[in-house]
Amino acid sequence: MLKESIIFLNKQGLADLHIHSCLSPCADLSMSPLNIVKYALEKKLTTIALTDHNTAKNCPAFGKECQKNGLNPLFGMEVNTIEEVHVLCITESLDKALEFDQVLEENILKIKNDPDIFGDQPVINEKEEIVGTIPYYLGASVNFSIDKIFSLLNKKDWLIIPSHINRCKNSLISQLGFIPDLPFDALEISGKSSTYSAFLKYDIEKRIIKTNGKEYPVVINSDLHFFEY
Ligand SMILES: [Zn+2]
Ligand SMILES: [Zn+2]
Question: Sorting pLDDT into bands at 50, 70 and 90, what band is 202?
Answer without folding.
Answer: confident
